[in-house]
Automatic annotation (TrEMBL):
Family from the record: Belongs to the ROK (NagC/XylR) family.
Stated name of the protein: Glucokinase
Superkingdom: Bacteria
Length: 286
């Protein structure tokens, strides 16, 4: 029987119908900015891919913090959801089994079963935010429920008065090295919010400010990766997310900086899968 996989990010949400591990149909829309529109759009996308198919269940990858067993989304910084039981809301509208997991951990599951297939490795997702998936001795590390929220590691201390529901510090990994961080820097220095790929193209053409943004971002990314290597000693680190569009030009800068910070020579690659978040979410439904 078929199943539905959902990958929710701060910029896009993707919903796909799977038969075993084969994606049959996928739809993608921008992530709405309000809770009401978010739920409405998500339900519409589910019905669009489900059509009249009978399904075994729905696997959902979504950023945390969250209580994934209960399906309660607590306060992800890039989504319009605060302390809502998304599982209960969806099950009222779609009568089927629903299992939640962290979106970056879903990517780690995809890499575990279909990608790098290593016993000890890390996934770092670089998109609107920064997320982490940790595989230790062939097991997904969940800790007390929210292990892998590496985007909230503090890489630089900056005095900050925390607002309601806010979990990011200005010096956090996510606010220094994500795709959104680069867009904000580009808007400030270049007058427009460029993507990682656009910054790469501009830097290659000799734009000094674009080069500066990439140098700063890849330095912070290398610092974060170096810290994670010392903690987890992974065989390999897989990078995923929208920043992948910047390709080897971006990754080579990270690697060269990492060599000055860390002597372990841990292999770092971009994921070779097109939709690892969806594929990983599909494995939640057995």
């Amino acid at each position: 029987m078929d199943k539905i996989a959902i990958d929710i990010g701060g910029t896009f949400m993707r919903v796909a119908l799977f038969h075993n591990e084969q994606m049959i149909k996928m739809v993608k829309e921008r992530t709405p900015k309000t809770k009401r529109e978010f739920i409405k759009e998500l339900v519409c996308l589910i019905h669009e891919v489900k059509d009249s198919q009978k399904i075994k269940g729905i696997g959902i990858g979504i950023p945390g913090p969250a209580d994934y067993k209960k399906g309660v989304i607590i306060n992800p910084p890039n989504l319009p959801l605060r302390n809502i039981n998304l599982k209960k809301i969806l099950q009222k509208k779609i009568k089927t089994k629903i299992i939640f997991e962290n979106d970056a951990r879903c990517v780690a599951l995809a890499e575990k079963y279909f990608g790098v297939k290593r016993a000890n490795f890390l996934v770092i997702t670089l998109g609107t935010g920064v997320g982490g998936g940790i595989i230790v001795n062939n097991e997904l590390c969940t800790g007390n429920g929210n292990a892998g929220e590496i985007g909230h590691m503090i890489l630089q201390y900056l005095p900050h008065k925390r607002k309601n529901h806010e979990i990011n510090n200005p010096g956090s990994f996510e606010l220094l090295a994500s795709g959104e961080a680069m867009r904000k820097k580009a808007k400030m220095l270049l007058g427009q919010p460029l993507t990682a790929k656009q910054l790469k193209d501009s830097a290659r053409r000799g734009n000094k400010k674009a080069q500066q943004i990439l140098e700063e971002t890849t330095l912070y990314l290398a610092i974060g990766i170096s810290n994670l290597i010392h903690i987890f000693n992974p065989e390999i680190i897989v990078l995923s997310g929208g920043v992948k569009e910047a390709g080897d030009y971006f990754l080579d800068k990270v690697k060269s900086k990492l060599e000055t910070l860390n002597s372990t020579k841990t292999k770092i690659i971009w994921t070779r899968m097109d939709e690892p978040g969806l594929l990983g979410a599909s494995t939640l439904i057995k």
